[in-house]
Amino acid sequence: SVVCWFIVCFSLPGRELPPICSDVRQKQRLSIDTLPPEVKAPFPSDPVIPLRTKTTKEFQEDVERAVQSGVWREVREFYLTTFDSFIEINAAFKANGSFNTIDDSGVNAKFVNAVYDALLSTPQDIQKSVLKGIINSLLREWKGPRTKDDLRAYFILVQNPQYSSTSTYVIYAHLLRQIAALSEADHHFLVHWLKKLSPRRFRQPVERLLQFISTRLFPAEPDELPPLTKCSWWIPSATKVLGLFNAANSVSTTPIMPFTDFYNITLEHIDFMEEYRTWQNYGNSNRFSFCQFPFILSTVVKKAIIQKDSEQQMISQARQSLVSKVSRRQRVDMNLLFLNIKVRRAQLLSDSLDELTRKRCDLKKKLRVTFVGEAGLDMGGLTKEWFLLLVRQIFHTDYGMFTYMKDSRCHWFSSWKCDNYSEFQLVGTLMGLAVYNSIALDIHFPLYCYRKLLTPPTIPCDQNALVGMATATLDDLQQIMPELARGLGELLSYEGNVEEDFYLSFQVFQEEMGVVKSHNLKPGGDKIPVTKQNRKEYVQLYVDFLLNKSIYKQFAAFYHGFHSVCASDALMLLRPEEVEMLVCGSPELDMSALQKAAQYEGYGKTETTVRCFWDVVLAFPLELQKKLLHFATGSDRVPVGGMADLNFKISKIDVPTDWLPISHTCFNQICLPPYRTRKELKHKLTIAISNAEGFGLE
């Protein structure tokens, strides 16, 4: 067969392919945007390309004639010639003209699409001839420096739809290996070409790559593919090429597809902790780990890694405390194994701050909360109640730590100055403890806040190093202060006389505790007018002042509080959106999944009240479904693991049916009187969930 012949060719002496280039992350994210001058070497001169004049229209007419007549000779000749070498691929698909920008591949995309769209409908012998031609191309082109025409050929070949079949995987693997082994400068070009593909054309190779990785890990038939020991480079090559698509998606002005579509759910079934340990130990070597390419790991995997990592740190902390006691021949108290928080309800905030400050060495232990003067063991309910009450108090507008932005419906840091920022550190610690203890918080920060939390993702060794100073743009300000962002956008696009009509200087004013204070955006800013020439600088400095400099001390305390609990290499695997999901849960609701996972107390799942409840809830609009979830759990978001992780319970309460439903948010429990009709239940439930007091929002 074509594939067997290909394997023999690549097994001949002297035909060993160059090893895949190592992905040296050095525990940092791969940046494909900026390249040092030394990797921007000029391409070798292009070879002379034969003249091919067939147009897209002519090719499509050839295919139509072949379909009608059954005579495929002309189409067969085209495919046979075109895919026989990189030179012929360029002859067929290279557009006329010069290509001066990095975004222009010089490829006639319309023609490529037409040829590939027709390919899978041609007779089998034509499809086999294309594969054989690709083999010839790869055999000729695996060594030596690359020209830009070589890159065009790789760019075209990676879009081939034939790689959906496992029978082509040997050829596909060698193509991926050659692309993966290209230089960083070559990858830079490919990334910018890939981002120009249409969303559909972009998604297709991404899905093929994900399927290739999944099938290589878990083949449907044991003999379907060569032994894994003989092709251990398949998965690293495919993952690195997938990384080029991910980079293209990231550098695109608007993402071509959601970042979650790069997740490979199959990886939830491998030993991901072994992958994590490999990455920790060999992060800057040739040893492959999926953690080098975190975009492929789902939030479920990342959460599990963080939890396992935290468990190991908790166990280590507890063991150290235990050994210390035993070595001093002191009586061992099992409370040593926990972070024990004792608070009075009347002094909740001050007691919590004191306890966490006093026990900062125990933050990585399992959390256990006790309310002074109240009997009962903390089986999870008291811990969740402590979180809910603290969040409710801290984010209340009267408290002044955070400002609620009504237009964007989120909280932002108050810029008032004080002598002690320990309460901001408490909020950061609280968020870290919530992640470590798998508690979803009803906190509404903008996404930019989580980007600041990952700047940098681990605490710098230098204590004087700045933290949380993420690059701020007008789009970031739009998330928080949309009206101001709109005004600054109008300033940037204003066609008239900026200096005379706006009469602005590089000085801004902020109200702090009822007093208006001025701040220069640059030295002598009050004497520098804003003009058409410097307005971009003004906007950039103003945005940076609002989102970084004016709240630096508050956010630095918040950052250090969070990282005092969550200091882990695992944070480097996360995007800001994923940190938000770990802290707050996912906004995606699936009430059918909640119904399947629900538990019952006092009711059976087939009883009238329960059936009416689910009929009503499943018919609710999304807004009311969110209110129901908030009413029952204290948050309108879902844990990363899905609805099943909520442990949602419906209980019977023996009271008259004119009572409203009640909830115990600490236990994710809703209590229903025995309503007899759907109408009655809907009326009472809607009143209850629409008038319940929320946590964290006005």
Automatic annotation (TrEMBL):
Ranges where the HECT domain occurs: 359-698
Top-level EC class: transferase
Catalyzed reactions: S-ubiquitinyl-[E2 ubiquitin-conjugating enzyme]-L-cysteine + [acceptor protein]-L-lysine = [E2 ubiquitin-conjugating enzyme]-L-cysteine + N(6)-ubiquitinyl-[acceptor protein]-L-lysine
E.C. code: 2.3.2.26
GO terms of molecular function: ubiquitin protein ligase activity
Catalytic residue positions: C666 (glycyl thioester intermediate)
PROSITE patterns noted in UniProt: HECT
Entry superkingdom: Eukaryota
Gene Ontology BP, a term: protein polyubiquitination
CDD domains listed in its UniProt record: HECTc
SMART domains in alphabetical order: HECTc
Keywords associated with the record: Transferase, Ubl conjugation pathway
Any single Pfam family the record assigns to this protein: HECT
Protein's recorded name: HECT-type E3 ubiquitin transferase
Naturally occurring in which organism (per UniProt): Cyclopterus lumpus (Lumpsucker)
